[in-house]
C-alpha cells in the first residue's frame, strides 16, 4: 500500500519533469563548481574531489532545502484544497500510510536527483582529473548527507502543508522557512557573535546554537567528517574540539526529520475533512 | 421504527455534529439494513454530505456513535472494510495531470482490483476512448463518469453516492441506475443523496428527509404519505350532461376541488379514501372512468420543507 502511494508521487515527479529538471540543475552546478574549484588544489596536498565536497556542500545547503520544500509544501494542503484527499481516505489506506507513502515517494525523487546529478558529476570529474576517484568516500558521504538534508526539508514542508489552510500560504511559509534556516539563522548567529564583545557566547553555547539548525549541522558534518576535507576547509579539528562527533551531527539531522514528520502525522490523524 | 441494531450495516445513534457554533447534524438516529437503498433528500446545506462523511469516517461526530459494518469508521482499524466500500463525492476531484486510465488504475491498486476490471469499468461508463487523455481536459460529465467508475471498483457492498447523476446526460442517467440496480441485486447497500426526486422515487426503499441538520422524516414512500396526510386526488370522468347531477349526489361532505365539463377532481385524506370510492361506485354507470393519484414525493418533500405539519 505504502509502495503504491509512493509510486504515484514518483510517477508525478517523472511526468511533470521534476526529476529531470532537478538532475540537470544539480548535475550542471556540481560539475561547474568542481571544474572551477579544482584550480586552487595546486601545491596543497588535497584531492580535487575534497575541494568539490566543500563547494558542493555549500551549494547544497541552499539548493537541496529549496528543492525539497518545493516538492513537499503542496503535498497535503493541495490535496485538501482540490478535494482529492477526501476520496483517497475512503480507500483502504490509513492516514499514516498516506503521509509515509508520500514521504517515501518524495524522498525517492530527491534521491534519484542527487544520485544522478551529483553522481554523474563525480563520474565526469574522475575521468577529467588526474586524481581519479581519490577521496570518493567524502564525496559519497556528501551525497548521502545531502539526501538526509533533503528528507529533513521534505518533512518540514509536510508540516507546513498540514498546518496552513491554503496552498498560497503554504508556498509563502515554505519560502519563509527556507530563508530562516538557510540565510537568516546564520546571519543572526554570526551577527550576535560579532556584537558579543564580552564573549558571553562561549564555544559550547555557539556549537549548541549551530546544532539548532539542520543546515548548519549538515555543513559541519560535511566539512568535518573526513580529514582531507576539513584540512582543505581550514576547520580541521574544530568540530571535534567542540564535542560534535559525526554520530551526534547525524543524530541531530535524523531528529530534524522525525520530529516534523511525527507532528504532521499527529495533526493529520486528528484532521477532519 | 424498531430495528435490530446489530444486523445493521450502518447504525447512527444520537449523532450530533457541530462546526464551531453551527450545528450541521442534530440528533440523528438511523439504522440501515443490508441490501437497502436509502435516499437522502434535503436542501443544500441540510447536512446530507456531512452525514455521509460521518459514515465514511472522514469526520467524527461531536456526540453520539456511528457504526459502519460493525465498527467505528473513524478508527484506522476500519480501513480494511473500505475495500468493500465505494464513494462518489459531490463534485468529485481527481489528480488533473494523470490520464483517466492512470487515475482509475491508481485507485484500483489501492482496492486490490485488477487492470482488467479498470478497462471494463472505463468502457461501462463510456470513457474508453477518453481514457488516455489527461483528466484536466475532461468535462464535468466525464469527471462524474470517472467518479462513478472509481466508486464501482472492487464490487462494493456499500455505496455512498453524493448527488451521483448531476452532470450526466439522460441516457447515462438511466444507465447509471441500471448499474446501481445490478449491484443491489447482488445484495449491495447504497446511500444516495439526490435532488432529482422523480428519478429516485421509484428506486429507493427508504427516504430520509433532512432539514437544517435534523432528520425530519424517515421511512418508505407509503409511510411518508401516511405521515404527511396530504390529500389523495380522485378524478372521475362523467358524461357532460351528468356533471351537475353527480356534483349534487356526491353531496356536501365530499371535497370537490375541480370541475370541468366532463370530469370532477375530488380530494380526501388517506383514511377516507375507501368510503369515497364506495360512494363513487354507488353512483353507478354515470361514472365512466376513475383515477386515483397519491401525493408525489416532491409534494411530500415540500410539505416537510415548508414545515406546515398539522
Molecular structure report:
The complex is a heterodimer of chains A (273) and B (310). Chain A has 273 residues and is an all-alpha fold. Chain A is 80% helix and 0% strand. Chain A contains 13 helices and no strands. In chain A, α7 (136-163) runs parallel beside α13 (246-270). The longest helix of chain A is centred in the middle third of the chain and has 34 residues, at 95-128. With 310 residues, chain B is α/β, with parallel strands linked by helices. Chain B folds into 2 domains: 5-226, P-loop containing nucleotide triphosphate hydrolases (Rossmann fold); 231-294, Alpha-Beta Plaits (2-Layer Sandwich), CATH 3.30.70. In chain B, 32% of the residues lie in helices and 27% in strands. In chain B, the strands form 3 sheets. Chain B has a 6-stranded mixed beta sheet, with helices on both faces. In chain B, α2 crosses α3. The model of chain B is unreliable at 1-5 (pLDDT under 50). The interface between A and B is medium-sized, with 24 and 32 residues.
